[in-house]
From TrEMBL:
Residues 1-449 form the Amidase domain. This is Glutamyl-tRNA(Gln) amidotransferase subunit A. The keyword Transport does not apply. The gene is gatA. The lineage of its organism: Bacteria, Pseudomonadati, Pseudomonadota, Alphaproteobacteria, Rhodobacterales. Keywords: ATP-binding, Ligase, Nucleotide-binding, Protein biosynthesis.
């Protein structure tokens, strides 16, 4: 823990940690030492972690990287972090992210972006670690913590994991409690582990998962032993390769990586099958209707009264002026854009044309996956992202839709509520990490981790 604390204090330029808790970390580490000495301590005991700023941590600032939550220190602890602390993990601090987890580059953060520890060989340009869990990815890749929590609404664990050469797992919707995690789009959000290895993911998911009566969407089903599932044996497993993910304009390196993944799984004894997920092309538009719709509703609570920041009012201002000023100065541009899109698609005149249609598309996308799994496919292999990490600043000012296109391989999974993992599987010619994604059947994180372990 001491080693990580000093590594963090020297790595300020990465912008990964936004709030450090060294004293708390040392207290927790001493308590963990004691537990270990007594014997029978759980696997996570003494493991130093970074926590995405989206998780409420009791007595420690939790701002979701937003200005509107300036000064907010929760009175309560999220279920996930409470479970991690109970299993002896050590809290190093809070990690950078896109504001309210909206983004794919960590550039919408009120703290400024986190930076990818990787550079193109022979280049000095700073690259994005991805988003929204960019601080988590950067910190794990740069060894500023042994592992980190992330959250994934449309790819925010998997895309940054791919951009930084680490492993990121988005569990089945309902596997991990959302209680105490700042909500973005409640029907899509899931927390998961971001780690250096697949085995670490298995161990950390074990500590995070399980039913929680405080989250009505948390599933009351047994949690298997994820680490015990890592047998290395995938003989006879059926791996689907979806035709629709073979899109025009994908860099050759990504396609080659995908072929490598197919070869590795085949050599390990899996059967490779071409499959079709015909509604894939509608996933991005459906996601960018549903996610903002839910966000606009969730973000209504930030009104300057209940949490965080309140704008200064002028004499004569009423409560509406106070709301307006607070939101105008507290929410960044991307968050305001989402709130506007969300309220628009939910408004009486447009509800059927946009929101309801997107929900129908979502059902079709889920049906595509169900059909494939019913035919015996155990997991689906795709690239995690359509490109390697891009330069900071290169996309942020462009058309926001350009940034949204980055999520093309990841959002389908959230719409269908499925588990998926990104594993580091290769690199570009100029040395940037690339990830492969495996998508699994509902609740089959164990099978997914075992297959991913073969790719790692
Ligand atoms: N990039 C996507 C978005 O901006 C996904 C974010 C996420 O998974 N939290 O909505």
């Amino acid at each position: 823990t001491q080693g990580y604390i000093s590594a963090i204090s020297e790595a300020g330029a990465l912008g990964a940690f936004v709030h450090e808790t060294p004293d708390l970390a040392m207290d927790m580490a001493r308590a963990a030492d004691k537990r270990i000495a007594e014997g029978g301590a759980p696997d996570m005991c003494g493991i130093p972690l970074g926590i995405k700023d989206l998780f409420c941590t009791q007595g420690v600032a939790s701002q979701a990287a937003s200005r509107i939550l300036d000064g907010f220190t929760p009175e309560y602890e999220s279920t996930v972090t409470a479970k991690l602390w109970r299993s002896g993990a050590v809290m190093l601090g809070k990690l950078n992210m896109d504001e309210f987890a909206m983004g794919s580059s960590n550039e919408t953060s009120t703290y400024g972006p986190a930076v990818n520890p990787y550079r193109r060989s022979g280049d000095t340009e700073a690259l994005t670690p991805g988003g929204s869990s960019g601080g988590s990815a950067s910190a794990v890749a740069a060894s500023l913590c042994l592992a980190a929590t992330g959250t994934d609404t449309g790819g925010s664990i998997r895309q940054p994991a791919a951009f930084t050469g680490i492993t990121g797992l988005k569990p089945t919707y309902g596997r991990v409690s959302r209680w105490g995690i700042v909500a973005f789009a409640s029907s899509l959000d899931q927390a998961g582990p971001m780690t250096r290895t697949v085995r670490d993911s298995a161990i950390m998911l074990q500590a995070m998962a399980g039913h929680d009566a405080s989250d009505s969407t948390s599933a009351d089903i047994p949690v298997p032993d994820f680490e015990a599932a890592l047998s290395g044996d995938i003989r006879g497993k059926v791996i689907g390769v979806p035709r629709e993910y073979r899109m025009d304009g994908i860099p050759k390196e990504i396609d080659a990586l995908w072929q490598d993944g197919v070869r590795m799984l085949r050599e390990a004894g899996a059967e490779i099958r071409e499959i079709s997920l015909p509604n894939t092309k509608y996933a991005l538009p459906a996601y960018y209707v549903i996610a903002p719709a839910e966000a606009s509703s969730n973000l209504a609570r930030y009104d300057g009264v209940r949490f965080g920041r309140r704008a200064k009012s002028e004499p004569g201002d009423g409560i509406l002026e106070m709301y307006e000023k607070t939101r105008a100065e507290g929410f960044g541009a991307e968050v305001q854009r989402r709130v506007m899109v969300g309220t628009y698609v939910l408004s009486a005149g447009f509800y059927d044309a946009y929101y309801n249609r997107a929900r129908k598309v979502r059902a079709l996308i889920k049906h595509d996956f169900d059909t494939v799994f019913d035919k015996g496919v155990d997991a689906i292999l795709t690239p995690t992202t359509p490109s390697a990490a891009f330069a900071l600043g290169s996309m942020a000012d462009a058309d926001p839709v350009q940034m949204y296109l980055n999520d093309v391989f990841t959002v389908t999974v959230n719409l269908a509520g499925l588990p998926a993992i990104s594993v580091p599987a290769g690199q570009t010619g100029d040395g940037l990490p690339l990830g492969l994604q495996l998508i699994g059947r509902p609740w089959d994180e164990a099978g997914l981790l075992n297959t991913a372990d073969v790719l790692e």
